Amino acid sequence: MLRLACCTALLLVLRLMACLPWSQVLPAALIFYLGSGGWRFLRIFAKTIGRDLHAAAVLLQVKMNVKRHLRQKNTLPAIFAETLRRHGDKTALIFEGTDERWTFRQLDEYSSRVAHLLLQRGFKEGDVVALFMENSCQYVGLWLGMAKVGVEAALINFNLRLDALVHCVTISHAKALVFGSELADAVSQVQSSMGQTLQVFCCGPWDPKRVPRGTESLEPLLAAAPSHLPSRPQRCFTDRLFYIYTSGTTGMPKAAIVVHSRYYRMAALVYYGFRMTPDDVLYDCLPLYHSAGNIVGVGQCLIHGMTVVIRKKFSASRFWDDCAKYKCTIVQYIGEICRYLLNQPVRDTERRHGVRMALGNGLRQSIWEDFMARFHIPQIAEFYGATECNCSLGNFDNKVGACGFNSQILPFIYPIRLVRVDEETMELIRGHDGVCIPCKPGEPGQLVGRIIQNDPLRRFDGYVNQSATSKKISHSVFKKGDSAYLSGDVLIMDEYGHMYFKDRTGDTFRWKGENVSTTEVEGTLSRLLDMKDVVVYGVEVPGAEGKAGMAAIADPSQSSDLDKFAKDLDNALPPYARPVFLRFLPEVNKTGTFKFQKTELRHQGFDPTVVSDRLYFLDSSRGRYVRLDQEMYCSILSGKLKL
Q1: How far apart are CA 415 and CA 20, in angstroms?
Q2: In what order do the strands lie in the sheet with 357-361?
Q3: Are 183 and 133 in contact (CB under 8 A)?
Q4: Which tens digits make up the pLDDT trace of 454-504?
Q5: How far apart are alpha carbons 596 and 397 in whole angstroms?
Q6: Which of 591, 574, 580, 585 lies closest to 626, judged by CA?
Q7: pTM for this one?
Q8: CA distances (Å), 525 to each of 566, 571, 582, 587, in order?
């Protein structure tokens, strides 16, 4: 509306120019401009032009680099070869724990040995090898070596077991499996279900009593392989690199396709957007089967020559000690990691580090400033994005709580948008012309990105499963007949274009005529309960409209003072957002990337015969939580006890 008003004013000024002397044109133009909301536009322009020009420059630089790589038919191994020429003897990877250090040259030689071994074993371009290992330098060398000969890696979540593990290997059509020796038992449990033709290799200490029958030890095979660069296949920048699996919070994981250009784009936008340099040292404690750890983190090493410190697993107690020891300047986080760090006892090293930036996504606004203040972190580099999405965002100007922005003065540069949606069903709301309705500032909507398949910055590669791909695409979103990627996430934008994460698909529920954001309620409850793990979700109650809020709280000793908690809730949340039911359990299940799993909790509901954990009900007449037993449960179902 603002831009429409400005354009209308401009047309009026042009008409006036035809009949007014030049001495009156400028005053007339100014009058019409201010009358059309010009002061507001000027305010937005003044506050955002620096941010927007930086973002435009970043997009232009990445786009030009992408065009060059497309023209030269480069792949990620070719880009790594450029990095190798610049930084050959510099430390590329450090593995915490053993203090193992690999230079770029050592990483290149190891990955070349992997490539030669695959060629010796008959693997060809387009074949898939599943990689099932915990974090290590070898992990990076293995998938990079596969890429050198056009073999595509399926990066399997090392937490998976049994059916889920078999599913991920099977849907990738892998011809071989490389697993870490620490996961030998998990592979032994499913070997008979994965087919007799699958070649199996073990990376790490060899224990013939634990590894499955038919497994080969990888180390001696690699030691015998040549270390020079093999002949590269005729791959191009838009060919497949590897597969990353969704977390599987609902149903089995889906294999998202990552092409070479997508890997480059994700890593480069973060690098240039947050003004990183090759001299930075990045601390990466995230799983390498995930895009945050492997692309946003390790990508800075492979593409830009940065030293990356890899940790086997995240440790809240060792986090700042590691940062000080390895002189890290950038740390990565995801999900609940920042809250876990805040929940640690105060120690000297948390202020003796040289970290200038925390990079990641999922930092709750409720603890944002506390995290910066306690650990002396000057910049939070929060970003929004999924492995497969084409509508990533970045908080380039350190705006508290924002996961990114879209320009209000140059919106055409980056074709993303918030569109109106039914937050309960996530159904898109369309206008009379059938096109989705854009959201106004302050109005929640689903983030979408226009799909342009011949543009590597706008394309959507989808999943191995075509049906899953189709579900993420909608048509007539920006204009009639176009296609757009559906993020499934609800965000809110302010007048300056800053965007704030609200909820993921299915996390919003309706109660007492109001939409309840589980993300916001979880943040509030966790803060009131001394940073305990809290999962909020809606449960159906017979005869009640909408879904009643329920909170699962990880508190095995039940140390929480429920009377105080109920009083604190009165001040912190509106009545409709306060959980009607509480469930205290030993721990809350999380994905490998520290996201809570809610599906089973929703299914179990608040039935005492199903849930063995302690349950409580908010007695509104007394303003306190009371123990929920079978008799009270029946009273709620019959309607005798009103909610």
Answers
A1: 39
A2: 100-103, 91-95, 307-310, 281-284, 330-334, 357-361, 379-384, 393-394
A3: yes
A4: 888 899 999 998 988 999 999 999 999 999 999 988 899 999 999 998 766
A5: 29
A6: 580
A7: 0.82
A8: 11, 12, 11, 16
